[in-house]
Design a protein that fits this description.
Elements lengths: L2 E5 L2 E4 L4 E8 L7 E7 L6 E6 L6 E3 L7 E6 L4 E6 L8 E8 L5 E2 L3 E6 L1
Parallel strand pairs: 2-11
Antiparallel strand pairs: 1-3, 3-8, 4-5, 4-9, 5-6, 7-8, 9-10, 9-11
Length: about 120
């Protein structure tokens, strides 16, 4: 079982930056793939970024490539999402997720609002 708690969301102007953190509990954190998803009002939840258990492989949604960076610290059981050059369309609730072959565990989400 893995429990995930996100933090770092907030209100930022377009062009600004935010860094989201996701603290995980559970001894198997380092063996799990981690990912960030987001859900905007009236829209379905969408994949944002993912990182392999070792951190050696990452992948991103086209909409955030070049602006967002996912990373992880297996020593401290934390995964990060550095978000730069934020746009109003990045406004959403951001969720951290983890799993071995599928994303089975989810955090409660953190709100990111980008004003124009």
């Amino acid at each position: 079982q893995v429990q995930l708690v996100e933090s770092g969301g907030g209100l930022v102007q377009a062009g600004g930056s935010l860094r989201l953190s996701c603290a995980a509990s559970g001894r198997t954190f380092s063996s799990y793939t981690m990912g960030w998803f987001r859900q905007a009002p009236g829209k379905e939840r969408e994949f944002v970024a993912g990182i392999s258990w070792s951190g050696g492989r990452t992948n991103y949604a086209n909409s955030v490539k070049g602006r967002f960076t996912i990373s992880r610290d297996n020593t401290n059981n934390t995964v990060y999402l550095q978000m730069n050059s934020l746009k109003p369309e990045d406004t959403a609730v951001y969720y951290c997720s983890s799993g071995q072959t599928t994303y089975d565990y989810w955090g409660q989400g953190t709100q990111v609002t980008v004003s124009s």
